[in-house]
Each structure stands twice: as C-alpha cells, then as structure tokens.
Amino acid sequence: METTELIEGKDISVERTGEEERKLEFKDALCASCGLCEKICPVSAIEVTPAGAMVRTEQDVSKIDIDENKCVLCGMCSCICPFEALDLKIGGESIKDMEEYPSLLKSAKISEDTCIYCKACETACPQDAITIARQLPERAKLVSGEIEIDKETCVDCGICEEMCPADAITLEHKFPSSDDPTVSSDIIVDKDKCVYCLVCKKACPVDAIKAVCRICSYGDYDINPEDSEIVGSSYIDDELCVNCGWCQEICPVDAAEVTKPFEGTLTLNQDLCQGCETCVMACPCNVLSFPQSTEPGKKPEKLHKDEKYCIYCGACQKACPVGAIDVERTKINSTPVRSKSWQKAFDSVKTK
Amino acid sequence: MEILYIKVKVSVINTHGVIMPKHIVSGLRYLAAVELRKKGYTQREIAERLVMDRSTVSHYLNGRNISWNSIEIADVIRNLCPRDFSILTYALVKDKEKTRNIVKICSIRKYECNVKNTCIACGICVDVCFMSAIVLEDLKAQIDPNWCCGCILCGEQCPTNSIEIKEVEDNGDNRTY
Amino acid sequence: MPIGLKLYPELCHGCGNCVIACPVNSANSPEIAGGKGPTDDVEVIMIVEDGEITMRNSGLCGKCGTCAESCPVDAIRLEELE
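Output (structure tokens, whole complex):
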C-alpha cells in the first residue's frame, strides 16, 4: 500500500494502490475556492489557497493543496464539491456513480420543446457553460415583392446602393472611357437579400426603380409558416455548470430548470464591507455586484446580492478579508447518506 | 518484537549454519499441515488447502524431508505476537493468499472485531489487512472475525480510530489491543 | 507552502496606495480609506514609514490581494512564503 501524488500543471491526483485502487483527481480549472473540501476533510489534508490571491494576482500554485501524507482517499471532498473539481475513483469507477456514496442532487436542463433559442441564458451564464446553436430561416422566404430598375433611366448615381439597408443593390462602378463614357457597367439587385422596404425607390432621384411590397399591401397571405421556423439546439456543459440558476431566471419562456445542491442564506454586513470587490471576483455565480448610483447625491447600497443565483458554496465568505459575509447552509440536497460518520461530516458543513 | 526477532536470527546462525527463508517456509507449512491433520483433514485436502504436492504433505506428516530446526524456528515465529507472526510470514512467503492460509491455520487465538460508527470507509484497513478479512459495506468497514489474525495493523492505520480488536481468551477474559 | 503577504521595501516608492486600498486597514480606521494616515493606536497590516513600506501586523491579512493590485511597482505581493 502506497500513496503517491502527481501534479500536472495545476491539476493534482493522489493515488493509493492496494487491495482496491483509489485515485483522487483535482481539476484546478473547475475549482471555485469555496473551501467545502477543506471543511469536510476528516484528516485535514486539504488547504485552499486564498481566493483573493488567485483572482487578483498571478500564482503558480493550484487552488487547493492536498497533503498526500494525510489524505486517506475517503472521497468526502469529492462528494461535497459542488463544482465537480474533485473526483474519487475506486477501481477506475467514479464514486459519483456508486449507489453507496451520497451524491449532490444538482442539475440544469433546458427543454428543447420550450426553448426559443433567444440566447439570453448563453449570455447570462457566469461560467459560459451554455451553447445555443440556432438556424435562422432564409430571409428571402419571409418577404414578398417585386423590384426592377429601369437601366435606361438610371443615371448610375449609386444612391440606392448606398442607402439599401440590406446591401441588396450593387453598382458595377467603372471609370468612363471615350468609347464607353459611363460610370457603371451594370446595376444588379440581389433578390435573395432585398426586403422590399422601398427605400431605394423613394430615394432614387430619377424614379428609375419600380418596386412593390406584397406583405405591406396584402398582409402575409403568401408566407408559408414553415419557412419562418427557427430550429436549434441547446447544450449545457455539466462540468462547467455551477447550477446557479441564471438560465432559469433569465429565460423568457421558462425553458430552463435548475436544481441547486444547497439551500441556505447569504447575509452581507454593509457596515463591515469596505468595497474591496474580492467577493464579487470569487463568486462563481455572479450573485454579488456593486450597484451604480441612480441619481446624483444618492448613495446606493455598498454591495448588492441576489440570492436567486446563490448556491451557498461559501466562496465569498471565504474570500472576504474583513468577515462581512455570512453564508449559512441549512440543507444539502443529496442522495441518501448511508453511514453515520458521513452523515455527521455532511452535517458539519451545514450552518456556518 | 525486536528481541524475539534477534533470538530467531541467533538460533538460525548458531544451530544450523545456514537456514534459507524457504526452509522456514517449509517449517511453517509443516505446522499448518499438522494443525489441519489434527482437525481431521485428509492428506489430499491438506495438499489442496496449502497448495502443496500430496507426497510432500505425506513426507511432512511422517517427519521426513524437513529439518527439525526449521520447524523449531517456524514454531518460534508462530508464537510471536500476531502482528509479527503475520508480517514475518508474509516477508518469507511473499504471497498474500498463502500467508493468509498459514496464519489462519496456525493461529490459536480468537478475536472479536468491532468497527465504530466513526468509520469513514477510506479503505486503508482493507489495503493493510494481510488476511483479507475486511470489506467495505455501506460506507463502513466490516471485519470477518473468522479471518482476523489480531495483528491490529488495521487499527494502527485507521485515521479515525474506529477499529476495536479484542482477544477472546479461553477463560472468557477480553483483552483490548 | 502557504501564500502570504510579502513586502519588497527596496522597490517601494512610498505612495501609500496599498495602505489606503487595504480593506482590513480601512475597516479598522475609516480615516485610512479617506487617504489620511492612521493614528498610532490603530492596528494596520502595513504602513509607509520613512518613505518605505513596513509590515506591522501580517496576521491581520485576509489575503484578498487588493494591495498588490493597487501597487504601481510590485513592492507588495501575495507569494508563497518560505
């Protein structure tokens, strides 16, 4: 039986070979320095590097340090980590897939049936975990009309080309020569691009453009509803997702559903807060922000929170240098905890 | 343990000139064979259990092909404390399954094993147990008292001090290690 | 090795940015955040003395890195301590 530690870049793995092969893997990029692993470790083998140092200054070290001489590879850290940064494998299988180990109940889903692919969640996601791919309908199929330019009347001024909002008109500019004293060889309208807005017609100084929009005059009688359909797909990277609930809250059609791993309260002491911003930088869920003053002379609250997005991981509390933040966890949503010692350990990360 | 170990060494040098580890292993196997014979096992069963030739078992039980000196040393090892007995046997035999068999057959003492609820199922005890007497079940170690040799290596390594091994003596006295 | 506050007085220009920016300093004495130097009875982490940064109470440091961020010449850093 031997325990060895391997550090690759900032990722760490601790391995013990024996009757059963145990391997604890730490992925630095996923860690939010919340300190839950440090808190639950029964042998005090984990030390978290101060979050402020990690986000503000460049450090060569990993976000946590695992002492391989102390680590017994029990897997408690792996089961409590809300960010999938730690994973214990026994005989090659992750304990997160084993029934006897408790695992956090957390998920984020986007219903393909409801999603309108507006991308609000993709923009709001604090971890860039969401990708919305959408295919827009062909513009030409959503408009209907006719356009024609009388080339005899046209004076090649290029005003229509300049004004067209859809870049549908192209004038083939040329330098006049004695055998062909014109400034353009041709003028072309791309009917796939034209939206029949009639700007060109109205702007033409010599009334060379004849155009009509059928939508405006007759309504949408000749548009096939299928042609206006937007198809797409949504994808949430479960490894990056922190289940903060931003997608659920921002979605205009309630297509996103998020289950959070912890329940609790987040309390800010505005008097103690000195506005250093460390918590704002440390929070993986964009719960905290500095509000802008709404009118001159009006002082807003120092630090703003919205608990809708909070997962009560405690990263902000751990990062605050003046103890102005209090995170209390009242409930851990997990599959059943089968052992008394594990239950006790889970209970120990509740409250403060 | 150290004093006893030195004694063994001294006897090796003084009384026989050269005794190889394999001779001591033979001695240990002899002791195990005799124990099994006492319990009524047939020579064939003994050979199977100890992974030996049937003829060798027959020779051993008739006191042939084995030096009394090897048996004496093996007997000294057997009477060491359970921890030294198992560690030394493993060092000589270099095979967990064979060590497990010899120690189990030759052990005279019985143990009562208790794992407290503070066990976190780290599995270190499973890894250190020469006897493969421990398994994890529902995030708790379970020790099979039939296989426990009383070496308490598990208890020494346990990070939460959750293991209690008690020797059950014939007179009913319980001694805690 | 733990990460802690390390001063490089030889690089310091004595501007006092770090003393003012430090949230622990200003929590202990609001005057500091206002740009006024602390009085002698106030506990501060670091202070500029004779134009050089000097450590007073490293134990108070919450390792948020605000000082390091405010220093124009990298004279105060969060580093692995020996």
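Chain A has a mean pLDDT of 92.
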